[in-house]
């Protein structure tokens, strides 16, 4: 699959997850060093927001928007994943007042499992995965132009449809 960033084309190798696929398991740590796996999110719909670099404008907008939604929708899990370091994420969250589950994945384990790492770019593609209560993917958006925001409402509607 190809995505662009300001007219530069990047190849994302592998097969990205599709609607109807069972979500791949992952093991990631939050900013509080609590380890999570996919199993921790079963029982509620989950929105997984993937951002290339938390300290950039569009990634910040995406994360703040889902943080705002998370504060209003208790029946939906929200998580954000980037391949930034824990320190970069912690500094950004502290400055921005964001209080949601943030996973740092500098080792690219989530990126490998979901095939969203762009080797020539060195970051993840911008993506949204919505899982149902059983961990089956109900919505996927891999944003074709990395510098654009995702369709927030489509992700929220997909999660709400699985309450």
UniProtKB/TrEMBL annotation:
Residues 17-161 form the Thioredoxin domain. The keyword Flavoprotein does not apply. Its EC number is 1.11.1.-. Keywords: Antioxidant, Disulfide bond, Oxidoreductase, Peroxidase, Redox-active center. GO terms for molecular function: peroxidase activity. InterPro entries: AhpC/TSA (IPR000866), Thioredoxin-like_sf (IPR036249), Thioredoxin_domain (IPR013766), TPX (IPR002065), Tpx_Peroxidase_subfamily (IPR050455). The keyword Disulfide bond applies. It holds the Pfam family AhpC-TSA. This is Thiol peroxidase. It comes from Enterococcus entomosocium. The gene is tpx.
């Amino acid at each position: 699959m190809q995505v662009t960033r300001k007219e530069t084309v990047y190849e994302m190798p592998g097969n990205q997850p599709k609607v109807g696929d069972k979500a791949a398991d992952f093991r990631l740590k939050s900013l509080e060093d609590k380890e999570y796996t996919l199993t921790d999110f079963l029982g509620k719909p989950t929105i997984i927001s993937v951002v290339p670099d938390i300290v950039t404008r569009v990634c910040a907008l995406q994360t703040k928007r889902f943080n705002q939604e998370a504060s209003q929708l208790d029946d939906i899990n929200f998580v954000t994943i980037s391949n930034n370091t824990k320190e970069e994420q912690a500094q950004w969250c502290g400055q921005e007042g964001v209080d949601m589950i943030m996973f740092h994945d500098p080792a690219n384990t989530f990126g490998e499992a979901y095939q969203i790492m762009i080797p020539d770019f060195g970051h993840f593609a911008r993506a949204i995965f919505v899982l149902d209560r059983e961990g089956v993917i109900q919505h996927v958006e891999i944003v074709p132009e990395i510098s654009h925001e995702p369709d927030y409402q489509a992700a929220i509607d997909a999660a709400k449809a699985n309450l």
